Amino acid sequence: MIRFISLDMDGTLVNSRFVEKVWMEGMPRLYAEKSGLDFAAAKEYVVSEYMKIGSDHLEWYDLRYWIDKFELKIGRDELLELYEDEIETYPEVQEVLDILSESYKLVVTSNAAREFIDIELDGLADYFCETFSATSDFREVKKSPMLYSAVCAALGARPFEVMHIGDHYNYDYESPLQAGLDALFLDRRSMRSGSEVVGDLLEAVELICN
User: Fold this and answer.
1) Domain boundary among 66, 85, 104
2) Reported confidence tier of residue 209, pLDDT bands at 50, 70, 90
3) What is the pLDDT of residues 151-160, one digit of tens each?
């Protein structure tokens, strides 16, 4: 029997606008101001530095690392707060959390760094008994089957008592299944079909509750 429902964050609960603004506008703009480059040139340089590290390394996700690397005169939280008005939950999220929280304990399991989770969940945090960051809490760059096993252990749950829902086919669907969890793939772009594929979180509720 399912006791816990785990939800991914970016692309599942909130759209990616805030994250994109921080990394692709905020960081380049601050570097442009520091270096004297125009924004386009600063962005090209900053993105090239991101790519040298790549998403297989923890530094890719570490805002403080990049602030220090570019020698920017701003704090991590201050940078995030510049763009917090860009945080936007998907339209069905509030209703879905109201419904699911009546019968299940809810958790967030995200690849995002802890500081992003905390600010993006502001206003929703009371729905969740736990939040897990792959990069900050487990020092993992991807949500592997081992990570989902660690989440289950932290919850005191057996894998079959946890369902995960998220929008990345490999890391939010295949990985939890390999760890013995139940899973639904959230496909907001309608690219896949199947009995465990949902177009939004209300469709997930229909499958879970019926």
Assistant:
1) 85
2) confident
3) 999 999 999 9
Q: Using an 8 Å Cβ cutoff, are 115 and 76 in contact?
A: yes
- Enumerate residues 6+ apart whose C-beta is below 8 A from 16: 10
| CATH number, residue 182 | 3.40.50.1000
Residue of 2, 25, 165 whose CA lies nearest to 97: 165
Which residue among 63, 85, 107 closes a domain?
Answer: 85
| Average pLDDT of the segment spanning 54-75 | 96
Domain of 59, in residue numbers: 17-85
Both tokens of residue 96? 């879905």
Q: What is the pLDDT of residue 137?
A: 96
Are 55 and 123 found together in one domain? Answer: no
136 CB-contact burial (10 Å; exposed 0-12 / middle 13-18 / buried 19+): buried
Give the C-alpha separation, 160 to 181, whole Å: 5
pLDDT digits (tens, 9 = 90+) for 11-59: 999 999 999 999 999 999 999 999 999 999 999 999 999 999 999 999 9
Same domain, 71 and 99: no
Q: How far apart are CA 124 and CA 122, in angstroms?
A: 6
Amino acid at 21: K
